[in-house]
């Protein structure tokens, strides 16, 4: 008679260790509390990933826990080249410090619970899978895609619970002898968990964030080892978080439905389950309805969006704190001397349903920050960003710091200031025209901006420019400058105000010539205060740009 051990040995002949051996190799931590961030390097990092990582790291740090990074790369067909390096770089950028993980050069591991990359842990998963086979808690399955599709179609038609369970699994109840015979002739199989739960049985479990949850228990014989010998998420979660001694699994709500299966698996191995903390998803308002922030449809789901558009990382984190704790802003106002990192988060008080990711509010938070800091700080931070994303502009900024600071200082800390810079990208847009080299790149749109206006008349504007530069004086007050400008304008048929223009007899009005100066000097129709710009640019640069 064929034994279960013979079946297990035939499937995993190279496995000699037991789970007990592995537990000795990875003993309990000196500090028994640990949390982790476990992303997949299959594409861009979702803002929700940063959100979950920040919560996990923050909660670990405030309790003197260990926080580690584990790379879940078992879906190797979708793996992005350089994806691990990108994940580590983003975490570092957001100040999310990793205590353990593949963070040394060339993704080598730091920490005693290595390897921290799932594709390097294949031997460990086989130990766990072999245990299940030996104890008849799992079985090899040879069902083809066509068979699975036919079952799914039948279940849909008959409106029964979908999945592979009971009589829907043709291999579940085969004898060891039948399985052995099949193993000898066909090596293309997966390993399925043998669930012992009855259909539609209900169960209850506790989640630190969601509290008490009652749901349908898992009755499905879920795949644990794929045909490529790599584990599915479910087996990897049990093996990894058991041996890495994870005490708190802080992860996205999309994994909440898998908890019944995971608790069954922990029980099957006789291992204690960690405490689960399922973070609610970030939502977006779309045509009046809330939906999950989507990688496919929403550019702001990609963390790169925020860097490309010049958001300050500190204030992205601070905004995320307002989602973690709805009372954060009140607490911050009551304790203005505290850093945003000094405020503790309480998992039990986090939102149980999805939180709206409000890009407008984030812009407001970022705007307030850029408005409050000094011009020196704004300059330094803008240079740092430009060095990464606009290197040519960064060189110009570094070459003449006083000129750049004077440009940045226009309307700073005035009633107009909050409208000027929302992101560092706004800073760059409003700096480039101060540099002759960058303005040249913008000059193609000068005539386009003038089109349809009297200021497009080159002969007329040349006469105006010739006279205007002869009297140009940047030492005047704003009022004196404006008065002088109106006197010159009137000679060329421009009204001093709208009321005067409506009386008739004028070819244009004061705003038209102001627009002409903006376009010639800045290659833009909208800018900060025009006279302030002119004072920063200086007479020589102004004359050069105005002359035809």
Automatic annotation (TrEMBL):
<dbReference type="GO" id="GO:0000049">
    <property type="term" value="F:tRNA binding"/>
</dbReference>
<comment type="similarity">
    <text>Belongs to the class-I aminoacyl-tRNA synthetase family. Glutamate--tRNA ligase type 1 subfamily.</text>
</comment>
<dbReference type="InterPro" id="IPR020058">
    <property type="entry name" value="Glu/Gln-tRNA-synth_Ib_cat-dom"/>
</dbReference>
<dbReference type="GO" id="GO:0004818">
    <property type="term" value="F:glutamate-tRNA ligase activity"/>
</dbReference>
<dbReference type="InterPro" id="IPR008925">
    <property type="entry name" value="aa_tRNA-synth_I_cd-bd_sf"/>
</dbReference>
<keyword id="KW-0648">Protein biosynthesis</keyword>
<dbReference type="Pfam" id="PF19269">
    <property type="entry name" value="Anticodon_2"/>
</dbReference>
<dbReference type="GO" id="GO:0005829">
    <property type="term" value="C:cytosol"/>
</dbReference>
<dbReference type="Pfam" id="PF00749">
    <property type="entry name" value="tRNA-synt_1c"/>
</dbReference>
<keyword id="KW-0547">Nucleotide-binding</keyword>
<dbReference type="InterPro" id="IPR000924">
    <property type="entry name" value="Glu/Gln-tRNA-synth"/>
</dbReference>
<dbReference type="GO" id="GO:0005524">
    <property type="term" value="F:ATP binding"/>
</dbReference>
<protein>
    <submittedName>
        <fullName>Uncharacterized protein</fullName>
    </submittedName>
</protein>
<keyword id="KW-0067">ATP-binding</keyword>
<keyword id="KW-0030">Aminoacyl-tRNA synthetase</keyword>
<keyword id="KW-0436">Ligase</keyword>
<dbReference type="InterPro" id="IPR014729">
    <property type="entry name" value="Rossmann-like_a/b/a_fold"/>
</dbReference>
<dbReference type="InterPro" id="IPR049940">
    <property type="entry name" value="GluQ/Sye"/>
</dbReference>
<feature type="domain" description="Glutamyl/glutaminyl-tRNA synthetase class Ib catalytic">
    <location>
        <begin position="33"/>
        <end position="321"/>
    </location>
</feature>
<feature type="domain" description="Aminoacyl-tRNA synthetase class I anticodon-binding">
    <location>
        <begin position="506"/>
        <end position="547"/>
    </location>
</feature>
<dbReference type="InterPro" id="IPR045462">
    <property type="entry name" value="aa-tRNA-synth_I_cd-bd"/>
</dbReference>
<dbReference type="GO" id="GO:0006424">
    <property type="term" value="P:glutamyl-tRNA aminoacylation"/>
</dbReference>
<dbReference type="InterPro" id="IPR020751">
    <property type="entry name" value="aa-tRNA-synth_I_codon-bd_sub2"/>
</dbReference>
